[in-house]
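Help wanted!
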Amino acid sequence: MAEQQTQLLANQPQPVVPPGSGFRGDDVPAETDMYRCVHCGLCLSSCPTYTTLKVEPESPRGRIALMKAVNEGRAAINPTVVSHWEKCLQCRACEAVCPSGVPYGRIMENTRAQVLSHGMQSEGLRRMSRMFLRAALPHPGRLRLGAHLVKMYQKSGFQRLVRASRFLNVLPGGMAALESQLPDFTGPFFGPSKTVYPARREKKLTVGLLSGCVMPLMQGSTMDATVRVLNRNGCDVVVPVGQGCCGALNVHSGDLETARQMARRNIDVFRATGVEAIVTASAGCGSTMKEYDDLLKGDAEYADSAGYFARMTVDITEWLASLPIDPPVSSLSRRVTYQDPCHLAHAQRITAQPRELLQAIPGVELVEMEQSTMCCGSAGIYSMIQPELSGQILDRKLDNIVATGVEQVVTANPGCMSQIERGLRQRGLSHPVTHVVDLLDEAYRSEDGG
Amino acid sequence: MARLLVYYHAKFLSYFRRAWEWCFLVSSLAPGAAARFLDELKAIVGEEYVYYHPEDLLVYEYDGSIDRGLPGAVVLPISTDEVRRVMALCYREGVPVVGRGSGTGLSGGAIAPPGGVQISFSRMDRILEVDTENRTATVEPGVINLDLDNHVHKFGYRYAPDPSSQKACSLGGNIAENSGGPHCLAYGCTTNHVLGMEVVLEDGSVVNLGGTARETPGYDLRGVFTGSEGTFGIATCITVRLLPLPEAVKTFMGVFPDVDSACTAVSAVIGHGIVPAALEMIDALSIRAVQNVMDLGYPEDAGAVLLIELEGLQEEVEEIGIEVEAALWESGPTLVRTAEEASDRERLWAGRKGALGALGSLAPNYYLVDGVAPRTKLTEVLREVAAISERYSIPIANVFHAGDGNLHPCLLFDERQPGALETIIEAGAEVMKVCIDAGGALTGEHGVGLEKKELMPLVYTDEDMDAMRRVRDSFAPHNRLNPGKIFPDGTHYHPPARRPEPGLSI
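Answered by r_m:
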């Protein structure tokens, strides 16, 4: 039989890539990390972007293949390649299921550092990096000032006026879309009114608390709850002055230099306090702080203390479960579902402790949702850089939440809280979305009240 | 000042680079026939579901194994109709076509032929119907094996074939390769579970093979099609058989000081007249790989571990369980333990099913040889494999379906070392010869594909292979579907030379 084939697509022009590795400088993805990937594909079903878009370039395996291709001089760091890397949420779900143990988070952070140093970031990320990640995040004062302004704008009714008038729609640059994503700053800010909050029961331990960057402004009440729950369980809480943002968002966007400066400041501040652990109520921060040793491994002066800082860091749920807590006495009678924050479940592999805490509250019934460890699409600044894809990922999460029929959603990370809350409100649903410690605090307080 | 200079320098470079790349982008949209062809593909599946930029194609050049081949274009259809139209277009233009499920195959089956169009089925992933009365499910080819299994669990059923890649591999790919899995010892491979399918042939015509019943009149074309490695046609709608979930499941782990005594135990278990649901062996090197990544409860000082699973009625499992334990103890194990808790069993199976990937913690590449040897000759064959390992100084990890003699020696290497790949392929061929000489077969469940095509003459005469080609010709007379696979033709699809950078950690 004839076996004729045409060569229609066989001689397509191939791009000329400069010889040698496309990665250069200090912050490069390590070969030993990248080549651990044997492209078996077992990560595919855990990846939020692959399961949403269903195409290989938007999968962990595809992204690593592109890193290898750049490393081998088969592809350049160009807009096509960068668009696939930037669609990654860095949720690290692939890392948790990888049978080869590929440290995906680390290689993606270094890859983003390469994109940054090659000046190839997308416009959206570039703008966000300049305006927010470098100009605002490292400066708690500026953040607080900005938050006060936004709070005034939101509380004065001016926001309603602007939205109703659709005045922003006529301005260029997608101002209306940006405005609609403005975080909610209407709640109380977290002080800190003092640096030491003494234990209410017999004192057992002294812990440091990371107040961080936007969490005390957006979820101040959760920070207060964290302090109260720690105090209630015999912990003196120290909130040292001078601390700042942990640098997680900078690390994720590849701005490792700024992140290192932020890490060094926090290390110095907490070193001076002599606390027995550094607690954080934000899973994203905890995961980055536990990896300060990796971030500062090239810094002779700080390498040791970074390792010590990393070992001292604990997530609030991990810490409370290890105490263990005094279980609250009064009953809350509530059906809740728990959303695993990616940086808690995948990066820190903490899934049991938050559930233990929830189940320690009398009357709380935990209903598991489908795919509770799948990302909600928040992923730091991702929801602002990739609003469309983030929305699709959020939609699936909301479907799974609604299917459980619960009255409240509980999670353990500020980003997840605001993303899920925003999604529910847009659907016209009024489920409260809280942190695990919020629920614990509520139980303790109703006990005190009664 | 210096910082400013550096900044503007970097800025200038990036603009220059972008302009440079833009030139290539434009030139890659070659005018003429190729561009028109791509436009027609886009008209069928939509612009965003045709990939032809070199960077996008790079991620479709691999599967789970060592062969590579850049497709000319990748299309991602959503319906049988789109598949039919893509196939008809390619047929008209004489462009070869290959289907791709999730790209987890281990024989290069989904690797595109040069200049070929790869049809990726990841978007056709709907479970269309579960018929509990007739115990069947109808699915699209991109449905993930484990997703189907989990879905039908809700109704008390299961889809039995469970390749180790079941978390990622697709039903369409399972049919192409007639995939197996640990539980195929008791339940058979994919072919025993596929009842019927809708198939698009090379010219774009659509036919139905098999049906919804277990036996259909006329030739068993469904049977011929299953395992045809994408050379006969592309299945676009598949009806599979479901089995009820077993009442009881019990898993035994036998720990042995060496591979020899574990092989003896395999014979002892089978010799007792027991047919377990699964009987797997994991050797010391594989255990090390698994435990390297995550502690899944495997003893790190063992020479080999047997995993034996029993399924059935409660009493039956209890009764046979006693016999299994007795048979295991006859062969000198250091430990026999049972896992009845679902979580305990899942941990052990997670280790077994992740073992292949875990090899990545030992070396950047593995070459998995899918040879089959008679169960009674396992000991000798594995000894010879060990000898090959020593002769070539290649670490070989064994993790395999011992119950049906389906070996999976994994030759570990680093493709970036010059000459490593050639040596590995040579050693792999020797392993294969050992299996054949012992009276075994070339492939147990992964297919021939690119990987083993040159070895086919070891088992088949020219007349045998001609007979196979004639069957293929009656499905695909122009051989436009996945050409260059299965039959020896002297071509290789190996990756291009890499920068040498040693990376073995053993």
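OP: Thanks! One thing I noticed: Chain A touches chain B through 60 residues (CB under 8 Å).
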